[in-house]
């Protein structure tokens, strides 16, 4: 038999780390009631019946005794991302279910705001951008990294070739000293860059656009 009260500090610690964002619910599977709830934002209290939430947990249980992450809705309509962990007693029998419910509303709003602030609408036909080829280069590199879901440190030769193809299409290398600048930005030698430019100009997509 597991004394669930010893898990209360863990529930409090998790809720303290994510105030107002993560609800922590500890279900006592022996009694079928909620043993503890921290940071609660659903209309439930300690001692309430928990069978509705835990009744069919075994059908979703993974080999590592976890469930999820999965999506569900709160009573106020807010979207939640949840994960649960099965706790067993000394005999290996199910004793409790620890559920963590993360509110997504505020996080999704923050994501949408950041996406709007950081989105790049590149217009290489603009005279202003044409006069600042370095800015165009930076924008192409940044937008390509975002599209490929890579950080700069993860760039490999095929990824750099994609960037160079787009720089060729934007006619960046017509600008004086552009090769030196691009080589430095991509972290490669000018010889390596010239090889990529040659390959880029042979690309069917590049040939069509030029």
C-alpha Rg (nearest Å): 27 Å
- The main sheet orders its strands as 2-1-5-4-3
- Individual helix count: 9
Q: What gross morphology would you assign?
A: elongated
Say how many strands there are.
5
Order of helices and strands: HEEHEEEHHHHHHH
Low-confidence parts: none
The biggest beta sheet reads: 5 strands, antiparallel
What do the pLDDT scores average to? 82
Helix content: 40-55%
What is the rounded distance between the termini?
A: 74 Å
Strand content: 15-25%
From the helix content, strand content and strand pairing, which structural class follows?
A: alpha+beta
Which tags fit this structure?
single chain; elongated; 210 residues; 9 helices; alpha+beta
Task: Give the topology, please.
Blueprint: H1 8-17, E1 22-28, E2 33-38, H2 51-54, E3 66-73, E4 79-88, E5 94-103, H3 105-118, H4 127-130, H5 133-148, H6 157-169, H7 178-186, H8 190-202, H9 204-209
Antiparallel strand pairs: 1-2, 1-5, 3-4, 4-5
């Amino acid at each position: 038999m597991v004394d669930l009260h010893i898990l209360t500090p863990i529930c409090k610690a998790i809720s303290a780390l994510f105030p107002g964002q993560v609800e922590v619910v500890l279900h006592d599977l022996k009694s079928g009631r909620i043993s503890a709830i921290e940071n609660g934002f659903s209309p439930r209290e300690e001692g309430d019946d928990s069978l509705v939430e835990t009744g069919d947990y075994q059908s979703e249980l993974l080999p590592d005794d976890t469930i999820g992450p999965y999506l569900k809705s709160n009573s106020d309509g807010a979207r939640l991302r949840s994960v649960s962990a099965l706790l067993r007693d000394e005999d290996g029998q199910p004793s409790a279910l620890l559920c963590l419910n993360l509110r997504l509303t505020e996080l999704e709003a923050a994501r949408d705001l950041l996406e709007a602030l950081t989105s790049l609408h590149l217009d290489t036909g603009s005279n202003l951008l044409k006069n600042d080829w370095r800015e165009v280069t930076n924008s192409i590199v940044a937008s390509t990294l975002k599209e490929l879901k890579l950080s700069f440190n993860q760039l490999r030769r095929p990824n750099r070739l994609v960037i160079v193809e787009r720089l060729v299409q934007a006619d960046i290398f017509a600008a004086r000293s552009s090769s030196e600048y691009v080589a430095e930005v991509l972290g490669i030698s000018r010889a390596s860059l010239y090889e990529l430019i040659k390959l880029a100009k042979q690309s069917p997509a590049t040939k069509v656009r030029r």
